[in-house]
Sequence to fold (268 residues):
Amino acid sequence: MQTTYIRHQLHLCGREISLTVFLMMVMTLSSFGQGMFGLTSGSGSDNKTLSYGFFLAAHTNAYQIKYSDAFMNPATTSSAGVRAVFPKYSPGFSLGFIGMLRFHDQVQLLFTPKVGFYEYKTEVSYFGTADSSLDNFPADEGNTLNNTTSTQMLTSEATMVELPLLFKYRSQRFNNTRMYFLGGASYNFRTKAQDEADIEDLVTTGQDVSLEMGMGFEIYFKYFKFAPEIRFSHGLNNAFRRENTIPELADAISSIKRKSITLYLNFQ
Fold:
């Protein structure tokens, strides 16, 4: 239990450090843009009804797993050997294009199709002894080694085509910077055929709809506009495909949803 607690602490610290680095980078670039090009940079496409750009992005993603009622029922024999199922965050990257429709100086509609490369990892913990030699230690002397568990890491790779449609609200321009918020929804589908995915141990469907929400800064340079952005995505559909998942997990899980945190580097 102590090891698990420390690991969760490290995960929380890692997210806080990442957010701090992101904010420091934004403030540094903002100062650089103002100092390098003065206060009158006219780059970007603020006055055009239609404008375009591209982006590179790095993300961390994981499944959100919900246990089934059968898993909590001692009478269920198929998943009796499963102790717990832990989704793990994994890194990935994506790239795509930006299409912007201007309604107002502060309001835009964005269409940002992209191709994302994902790896989903799930750790399954089983009851039992990982090393049979531990069985030689007597349990009545306070030794708990023979209560250790074995684990298995399940990995699923997926290339996703994502089609987000987002509303973007920007603050008024201050010198060479703007802050903005955006939100909307995305339709996503996997390029891998379902027949190919069905041979995996933990099977998911290939289509999903997700909610997208984020914030960022537009920084005006001499010939272009740069916008670092952080965005959160949460799948709405239950992607779990029970009928093709291995039996011990089929009865242990009732729902799987995809979620991710993405850092975008937008160029316009």
About this structure: Residues 1-13, 30-38, 129-146 have pLDDT under 50 and may be disordered. The longest strand covers residues 150-170. Residues 136 and 146 are 9 Å apart (CA to CA).
